[in-house]
Amino acid sequence: MNNSEPEIFVLHSLYQWLPVTQEWLYTQICDLPEFIHSSVVAEDIINPTLFAIDNIRSLSLSSQRRWIWEKWLRKIGVVRSLPFVCEQAQSNHIEILHSHFGHHGWANLDVVQKLGLKHVVTFYGFDVNQLPQQNSRWRLRYQSLFKEVNFVLCEGPHMAQCLVTLGCPSHKAKVHHLGIRLEQFPFQPREWCPTEPLKVLIAASFREKKGIPDAIAALGCLHQTTPLEITIIGDAGSDKASQKEKRRYFQISSSNMSDPNIHGLSTPCCVLEQAYRHHLFISPSVTASDGDTEGGAPVSIIEAAATGMPVVATRHCDIPEVLSCYPADLLAPEGNIDELLRILRLWTGHPQEWADILRPQRTYIEAEYDAKIQAARLAEVYIQVMNKTSGTATEVSGC
User: Fold this and answer.
1) Ramachandran region of residue 313, left (φ > 0), alpha (ψ -120 to 50) or beta?
2) Which of 284, 263, 305, 261 is nearest to 210 (CA)?
3) What are the backbone dihedrals phi and psi of residue 174, each rounded to the nearest 5 degrees, phi first?
4) Which of 141, 152, 298, 368 has its CA 20 to 30 A from that of 127?
5) In which element (H, E) is residue 355 found?
6) Are strands 56-58 and 96-100 parallel, antiparallel or unpaired?
7) Which domains does the chain have, with CATH numbers?
8) What is the pLDDT of residues 152-168, one digit of tens each?
9) What is the pTM of this model?
């Protein structure tokens, strides 16, 4: 460790460690510099082998009696945050509480105020749009959060503006891109010969905001002139909305083309393996009827573009921020199947020009979405919070 760097003790607080779809959070914490001493506190742990991490504590692994008691106290409104979180902050000599997801940040205000901690909150998606739209009390709760928090981190300028609209002071809203470990994503710009089937990958859960039915509808039209092999990695959750979206997909799929290969939920390694077997990635996100959005952008788009895949996507939230090296006409308006088809035909009509777009896009991702670089930038945020240096926030660069 560089002795000139200040030691900072950070507690990362979240509800669950860790769904397979949130590998980016695991990377974000593990790649922090050594002078940032990180601990994690969660209510529950899933996938502990897949996302093994030191210094993690979970309420679910304590006594069942305590688990029931603390969750009951929160349910009846006696406490916002579980006493377990406060206990972990005290025992680990924490200076900064980093709450992941906005609603969790609001709940943790009790801990921050009681212990006099610095507070950083990262918003990711539904907590920006869906939550305050569905329940107006969250607008008031966020006002309390924005007043007390030191910094609010978000994935891109679109999300930052959404937070400002909700009442976050602009000087507290910081764009902080999520990072991926680029050494795991070697750049292999795809090549496709029109005499062979175009292999298309979709990797997303069956949620309305993912736009899977739009993708299938557009691909169904393309299939009339271009042989396709389609793979879908993902599945529906147990909730009614997700199951409805899956049924909607099957209705559209059965009327348009032969059934794609559906793999269900897979580990990040399996998704990456499939990515290199395909030519093109499609992810046409939309604003759902209940207000749910990506908030920022799907990490799957960052990963696909990093490998050298053409990405067909929409001008939704911060997707244009990720694909900033794409010409404007290669991003479709939300929910516009005709435009998705037009873009698919642009890619398939000019395969010899793919590399001219894919290489600069990879260079941009290396500069703005590299996990090690982003971890260093996150450490700089912590230093600023502690007022131990006069460092400034990193500006986001374009192509």
Assistant:
1) beta
2) 284
3) -120, 130
4) 368
5) helix 354-368
6) unpaired
7) 8-179+370-386 (3.40.50.2000), 183-365 (3.40.50.2000)
8) 999 999 999 999 999 99
9) 0.90
